[in-house]
Amino acid sequence: MGRITAVANQKGGVGKTTTAINLAASLALGERSVLVVDIDPQANLTSGVGMRDQVPEGRSIYSALTSIDVDGDLSPYVLHTSVRGLDIVPADRHLTGAEIEMVGLLAREQRLRRLLRPLAERYNHVFIDCPPSLGLLTLNALVAADSVLIPLHCEYFALEGLAELISTMRRVRAALNPSLDIEGVLLTMYDERTNLGQQVGRDVRAFFKEKTYSTVIPRNVRLGEAPSHGMPVALYDPKSKGAESYLALAREFLERHAPAAAAASHS
After folding, report:
1. Between the CA of residue 119 and those of 1, 102, 186, 264, what are the distances in Å?
2. What domains does the chain contain, in order, with CATH numbers?
3. Which end of the chain has fewer surrounding CB within 10 Å, N or C?
4. Is the pLDDT score of 250 beyond 60?
5. Up-side HSE of residue 176: CA atoms within 13 Å toward CB?
6. Which helix (H) or strand (E) holds 197?
7. CB-based contacts of 78: which residues, under 8 Å, 6+ apart?
8. How many other CB atoms sit within 10 Å of the CB of residue 57?
9. Is pTM beyond 0.85 here?
10. Residue 221, C-beta contacts closer than 8 angstroms, at least 6 positions apart
């Protein structure tokens, strides 16, 4: 079954959706089968892969999560993107009300897990783009995921607020998902020319140690422009520093899982 990774940080503006889009697309361009799931009511991931105006009525993650059948088939909600090998379960404006509507539903914290786990068997990798909060939607992602990828903006307050995310992960492990782990911490909007960027990098590596990716994502204009064209940066400008950095991240991501994959193939 494809490994399910939640891309989460309750702080907004840290490159979370940018990372979900471009890491997933880089893996797909490397001939991996990848599914992205948009559970952010802003639906930026959906628009960032060019699908905002192509979501059929009743075919978004909102409809699936709020349906009576918690063990329903998520396959009808999957759409193909312009990147070969990259599929999406999209979001739309209705997702804004999902947290309120889900409160009274059966197994409200496990709805995404029960919908997504059977579908994940068809993919090498699954990424869930979470909203910038620790509400019920993010909780569903943490319960469904094998691990959490944490993008971290290289600024003064980078580590502030992470304690709450780590604490939430501990509670989820204790009560709902004992195998949940930190996939890795990714430094984003990195500027090695500044003392602040270097200091934040050192602090994060000292705190998270080997969980911190060697690859860093630089500030790059092309990364900001690509979503407005509805495509990942690897298609928008493949020679840009942003595209090269996410391709490097994809390679490091695969290398981290190579020993586990080899062990699984011999078991």
Report:
1. 9, 21, 27, 20
2. 3-266 (3.40.50.300)
3. C
4. yes
5. 21
6. helix 195-208
7. 35, 87, 88, 89, 119
8. 8
9. yes
10. none
